[in-house]
Specification:
two-stranded antiparallel ribbon, alpha/beta, Rossmann fold, 7 strands
Amino acid sequence: MIRTIVRICTHFFDIILPPRRTERIVRALSNEALQSLATHSGTLPYHEPSITALVWELKYRKNSEALRLAGTFLAEGAMAIAEESLSKPVLVPVPMHHTRRKARGYNQTEALCEAILTAAPNMCAYAPNALVRVRNTIPQQGLPKHRRLKNMLGAIETRDSGEVAGKICIVVDDVSTTGATAHETKRALLEAGAKEVHILTLANS
């Protein structure tokens, strides 16, 4: 009964305010569909149209359904790491510079961490402020590989080493291309005394 009411309400609102193309694509996605698209590395192929839509909806719209799907998908990877760990791992979102965060209103990697914790409660600890982006880098998208690597050098530092020292850290990111951001976050965490650093990425381009 409740599902029927939700469908009717959704249909009514869609007539008044038609959904975005990417929003319609995300609505048609399922956890099973994402699993079937996963690559051998455990990530999703960014350039597959449905995955591009998923990333755009969570990154630029903070779409709750996109976050639920992504959180459930990433929770599988986090669970695999947790099962091999002797202590509870710590989820660490890739930080966003404060000027960009102010413009967007949120950091999508923090939203992804929260979605993972919703999908798998108590599996991991959470350190949303462990890292800070000390330099407002230009967007990585569209840059050649050598520029991406140079762009990220020294851009990320640890804010509070006490949150990560001696801990197994799982860095959460939405998209990886060259791995430059992952390299910088890993460097910062290891320099702060992290025991291990794992990179958990939703999509790879």
